[in-house]
């Protein structure tokens, strides 16, 4: 999926980062990669001509792709971050202060790496934790869905299989949410 890219798209518009912080994060992410940084949402990149659509024969559907780039998107969520920590009661001097566990801040998010309707990774239920020194530590993601074309078929972790042929990133996420929430 990374082969032949000239552009690295980054969309941080759905985060709580300021414009300056988002630009700094995007720059740091692209540093050392052999691709030109382009910031923007999927829609903005379509408008600018980076992501193009080809009409499919005998259909009004369109196949969308970024032929020479990849779009990375992060969307913050309101999911609460929970930890499996020792019980701390009032009698033993317990405190609700998470700093004693080297946690000063948390963020929940979903992330996507998208190249086309046939090539995407979608990570959902992700959590990042900042320690007391101000450094962000390891990321944890609850679910990873690989939407990659393999051997003429779209391959997804079983039992999850959906057609990704004519989908934009938003359509893919909505379909994954629908399937994940209704498949039991």
Structure notes:
By secondary structure, the chain is α+β, with helices and mostly antiparallel strands. The protein has three helices and nine strands; from the N terminus they run βαβαβββββββα. The chain has a seven-stranded mixed beta sheet with strand order 2-1-5-6-7-8-9, covered by helices on one side. A two-stranded antiparallel ribbon has the order 3-4. Strand 8 and strand 9 (153-155) form a beta hairpin.
What brief labels describe this structure?
globular, alpha+beta, 38% strand, 184 residues
Secondary structure: elements and pairs:
Blueprint: E1 7-14, H1 19-30, E2 36-39, H2 42-47, E3 52-55, E4 62-65, E5 69-76, E6 105-116, E7 119-130, E8 136-150, E9 153-155, H3 169-182
Parallel strand pairs: 1-2, 1-5
Antiparallel strand pairs: 3-4, 5-6, 6-7, 7-8, 8-9
Question: Could you write a compact summary of the structure shown?
Answer:
The protein is α+β, with helices and mostly antiparallel strands and 184 residues long.
Major sheet: arrangement of strands? 2-1-5-6-7-8-9
Query: What distance lies between the first and last C-alpha atoms, to the nearest angstrom?
Result: 30 Å
- The gyration radius over C-alpha positions equals 19 Å
Quaternary structure of the protein: single chain
Helix content: 10-25%
How much of the residues is beta strand, in percent? 35-45%
- Strands, count: 9
Q: Would you tell me the overall average pLDDT?
A: 74
Helix-strand topology string: EHEHEEEEEEEH
List segments where confidence is low: pLDDT < 50 over at least 5 consecutive residues: 148-166, 179-184
Output the number of helix runs: 3
Shape: globular
- Quick one: biggest sheet? 7 strands, mixed
Structural class: alpha+beta
């Amino acid at each position: 999926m990374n082969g032949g890219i000239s552009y690295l798209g980054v969309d941080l518009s759905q985060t709580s980062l300021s414009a300056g912080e988002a630009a700094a994060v995007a720059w740091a992410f692209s540093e050392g990669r052999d691709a030109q940084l382009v910031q923007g949402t999927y829609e903005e990149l379509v408008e600018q001509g980076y992501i193009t659509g080809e009409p499919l024969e005998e259909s009004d559907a369109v196949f969308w792709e970024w032929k020479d780039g990849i779009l990375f998107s992060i969307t913050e969520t309101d999911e609460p971050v929970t930890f499996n920590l020792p019980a701390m009661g009032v009698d033993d001097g317990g405190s609700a202060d998470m700093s004693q566990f080297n946690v000063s801040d948390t963020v929940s998010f979903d992330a996507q790496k998208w190249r086309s309707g046939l090539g995407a990774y979608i990570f959902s239920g992700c959590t990042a934790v900042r320690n007391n020194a101000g450094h962000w530590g390891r990321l944890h993601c609850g679910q990873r869905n690989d939407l990659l074309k393999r051997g003429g078929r779209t391959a997804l972790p079983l039992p999850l299989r959906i057609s990704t042929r004519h989908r934009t990133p938003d359509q893919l996420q909505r379909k994954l949410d629908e399937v994940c929430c209704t498949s039991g």
